[in-house]
Design brief:
about 55 residues; 1 helix; mainly alpha
C-alpha cells in the first residue's frame, strides 16, 4: 500500500468513527425523547383516570 493510500485509508477510518459516534449520540437522543414522550403520555392517562373516577 502506498503512503498516499494509507493516509486516505486512515482518513476514511477516522471519518467512519466520527459518523459512528454521531449516530450513537443521535440514538441516545431519540431514546431519551421516546422516554419523555412515554412519561408524558402515561402521566396524562393517569390524570384522565383520576378525572373520570
Amino acid at each position: 500500500m502506498k503512503e498516499s493510500e494509507r493516509v486516505a485509508f486512515n482518513d476514511l477510518v477516522k471519518k467512519v468513527q466520527q459518523h459512528e459516534d454521531t449516530i450513537t449520540q443521535l440514538v441516545k437522543i431519540v431514546a431519551a425523547t421516546n422516554r419523555r414522550i412515554t412519561d408524558i403520555v402515561d402521566g396524562s392517562h393517569s390524570s384522565e383516570q383520576v378525572l373520570h373516577k
